[in-house]
Write a structure and sequence with these properties.
Length: about 140
Amino acid sequence: MESTPVQAGDAVPQFTQALVPTSVKFGEKISLDVTVQGAPKPKLYWFHEKRKIRDSRHVQLLEEENAIEGSPQVELKSSLVIDRAEEFDSGKYTIRAINRSGLKSSSVNLVVKGDYCLYLSLVLAYMQALYCPLLPQTFIY
């Protein structure tokens, strides 16, 4: 596999706004935001605990591109947005910016705090009412 040669004006991606350690309450909206510059335009890849993240109903990946006047570099603003944070969203998030000049990454730990027991008991009560309406109420809330 042959790589594309670096050209005059190329620049390794640089984070001008890196990820910031964050904690949120269970059910809150969270946005992890970065700004990166590079030439040519870097490709951005998000990871949660080393697994690549894709757009879904639970997670949105947003990207905005801006030209930098008088420079061959491009500025990208990227956000990973979770509308309702859940326990499994906790962990290490990494964004990698890659172009033919190189690779840079920024990582952060996200902590989701909350009353998971209350949430679980509500889910169990709902499921019991939905699927077992004739059984006696056996769950303790």
